[in-house]
Design a protein that fits this description.
Blueprint (H helix, E strand, L loop, with lengths): L13 H18 L2 H15 L21 H18 L5 H9 L3
Helix pairs in contact: 1-2, 1-3, 2-3
């Protein structure tokens, strides 16, 4: 499951999707609405599975969005960490570690 920048679009934009997931996770933490955590996790799993071997992510799922940069990858990493913090979970820790390995 992937969010887009607006409900009028069907583009799968990874950093936008996790920003929405992060917002859902934080609201869920304060409202105890499990369904929001489930939506956040679905978005995080979708994006997490698309991480590249070098630890980066493409901008989006379409072929013309296959470029990657540190700016959008950093957004994804920040949102993954915030989702994990909101859930008190380490579910996406492997994605964070894979990215950190390229810094060594």
């Amino acid at each position: 499951m992937c969010f887009s920048y607006s409900p009028l679009e069907s583009n799968a934009i990874f950093n936008a999707s996790l920003l929405a997931g992060e917002a859902l996770a934080v609201v869920a933490k304060h409202s105890e609405k499990q369904s929001l955590i489930d939506w956040a996790n679905r978005a995080a799993i979708y994006v997490g599975r698309r991480q590249r071997q070098d630890g980066s992510w493409a901008y989006g799922a379409d072929s013309h969005q296959s470029w990657a940069d540190n700016f959008h990858t950093a957004y994804i990493l920040t949102s993954l960490k915030r989702i994990m913090d909101a859930e008190s979970s380490d579910q996406f820790d492997n994605a964070l570690r894979r990215w950190l390995r390229i810094l060594d």
